[in-house]
Automatic annotation (TrEMBL):
The protein's name: Dynein heavy chain 9, axonemal
Domain Dynein heavy chain C-terminal: 47-342
Source taxonomy: Eukaryota, Metazoa, Chordata, Craniata, Vertebrata
Coiled-coil annotated spans: 73-100
A GO term for molecular function: dynein intermediate chain binding
Gene3D superfamilies in the cross-refs: 1.20.1270.280, 3.10.490.20
UniProt organism field: Pelecanus crispus (Dalmatian pelican)
Length: 344
């Protein structure tokens, strides 16, 4: 029996070795082209892998960081300086009752603005509460809890704390980038709620719920033209202009900016999707004019139904599908995984 098993193992090893040798000799080297992808896909994968490796190394570094010339800044001092800076930069919460008193008519866009203000209040109040609590803990005025320690570790490692992400929008950014983005979102919301007039070009990525704004476009057009909402769709026309080129919003629909394309690029000269340039992973899109039209008037000829996602994680961050013009067969872009992203 032992001899029989040994013979079987030898045959199995031979088959395995033969298969490996055949793959090495007869099959082409693995390449993104084999899967219909652009070489940028490999660059993106390797970049994300490197970032993950450096993140692990960062988490393993000593708790005390030397500043050189004998000076040492402790973990607690670094965290305390960071939280004080954050608390200083955060503005007051939106006064919803005061904002409602300024509005004469609650249009779909106004409703979206109120919803965004409420979500922002929930997030910023949690940020302030947790930072103030940690500050007291570092001063010794409160007993350090596990939640406070988790927050301290997140601030030290430049990651967004879990209690914040639960109340925020999907994001893959580090804490510093995430917080700067948060402040920009607050400024955009403050400008919009100043007089509740729609911005000349709307930063679609600045919403907690971009779908609500896109739905508001359809609702506004449906009410104005007395069209049934369930028989409408969105038409997306990519302009040749940037955000600064627009001084006022359109009569119907909205101009949106801040989108990026992954897997391909938009050719502004010919107004079609075309192959990406090497090392340009996520080229920016021009301003897109979005308006609502009846379903039966939608042009689907030579169009690629391009999915829109909030982050590069895609999946559950799906927002909408924008039809974009193409001269190539749409299946090419499907295979290449072409999508629009609101954050990179």
């Amino acid at each position: 029996e032992l001899c029989r098993q040994s013979a079987l193992d030898s045959v199995s090893n031979l088959n395995l070795n033969f298969s490996v040798q055949y793959i090495d000799d007869a099959l082409p080297p693995e390449s993104p082209y084999l899967y219909g992808l652009h070489p940028n896909a490999e660059i993106g994968f390797l970049t994300q892998t490197s970032e993950k490796l450096f993140r692990i190394v960062l988490e393993m570094q000593p708790r005390d960081t030397s500043m050189g010339e004998g000076g040492v800044v402790t973990r607690e001092e670094m965290v305390k300086a960071l939280l004080e800076e954050m608390l200083e930069k955060l503005t007051d919460e939106f006064n919803i009752a005061e904002l409602m008193a300024k509005v004469e008519q609650r249009t779909p866009y106004v409703v979206v603005a109120f919803q965004e203000c409420e979500r922002m209040n929930i997030l910023t109040s949690e940020i302030k509460r947790s930072l103030k609590e940690l500050d007291l803990g570092l001063k010794g005025e409160l007993t350090m809890t596990s939640d406070m320690e988790n927050l301290q570790n997140a601030l030290f490692l430049d990651t967004v704390p879990e209690s914040w992400t639960k109340r925020a929008y999907p994001s893959t950014a580090s804490l510093g980038t995430w917080f700067a983005d948060l402040l920009t979102r607050i400024k955009e919301l403050e400008a919009w709620t100043g007089d509740f007039s729609l911005p000349s070009a709307v930063w679609l990525a600045g919403f907690f719920n971009p779908q609500s704004f896109l739905t508001a476009i359809m609702q506004s057009t449906a009410r104005k033209n007395e069209w049934p909402l369930d028989k409408m769709t969105l038409q997306c026309d990519v302009t040749k202009k940037n955000r600064e080129d627009f001084a006022s919003c359109p009569r119907e629909g909205a101009y949106v900016h801040g989108l990026f394309m992954e897997g391909a690029r938009w050719d502004a000269q010919t107004s079609i999707i075309t192959d990406a340039r090497l090392k340009e992973l996520t080229p920016a899109m021009p301003v897109i004019f979005i308006k609502a039209i009846p379903d039966d008037k939608q042009d689907v000829h030579s169009m690629y139904p391009c999915p829109v996602y909030k982050t590069r994680q895609r999946g559950p961050t799906y927002v909408w599908t924008f039809n974009l013009k193409t001269r190539e067969n749409p299946s090419k872009w499907v295979l290449a995984g072409v999508a629009l992203l609101l954050q990179i």
